[in-house]
Amino acid sequence: MKTYPVQYFFKMLLLSLFCLIAGYAVFYSVGEKAKFNLFEFLLIFLFCINFSIHLIVIKKTEKIPKKFFGIYMISTAVRLILYLVVAVIGFYILKSDIKLFLISFVVLYLAFTFFETISLTNYFKNKG
Q1: Rounded to an integer, what distance in angstroms lies between the CA atom of residue 77 and that of residue 40?
Q2: Which residue in 112, 12, 2 sits closest to 62, CA to CA?
Q3: Number of H helices, E strands in the chain
Q4: What is the pLDDT of residues 58-95, one digit of tens each?
Q5: Residue 110 phi, psi (nearest 5)
Q6: Across 40-102, where does the E strand assignment appear?
Q7: Residue 100 and residue 127: Cα distance in Å, rounded?
Q8: Residue 25: strand, helix, or coil
Q9: Average pLDDT of the residues in 13-29
Q10: To the nearest 10°, the Cα dihedral for 87, 93, 95, 98?
Q11: Domain ranges for the chain
Q12: Full-model pTM
């Protein structure tokens, strides 16, 4: 069980690297390379939040798997509140680049959410 967090970290790192390369290609091809640091911030933010909350959910449900649903719902609510705060701050700070910010945010959000869902499904399938 101790190796799972390390494996998850490296898989998530690979996802982040893929997103970084894809984001780099897109930003530079559309001529928005000066705004790439915004994408990097979102990537690091989503990585940290998703990794932390994923490990908390796994740790809290390790002993009592029946608590998974409740813990997962609470963690999702906390995560969505954090995302909303960042989105609102981004909206007020980046008025001129709001489209770029929102598209980047949604694409990264979907990538990390999809990855976490698959990871949790595989984790509990292999565990049980």
Answers
A1: 24
A2: 2
A3: 4, 0
A4: 998 888 888 888 999 999 999 999 999 998 888 888 77
A5: -65, -40
A6: none
A7: 40
A8: helix
A9: 90
A10: -30
A11: 3-127
A12: 0.87
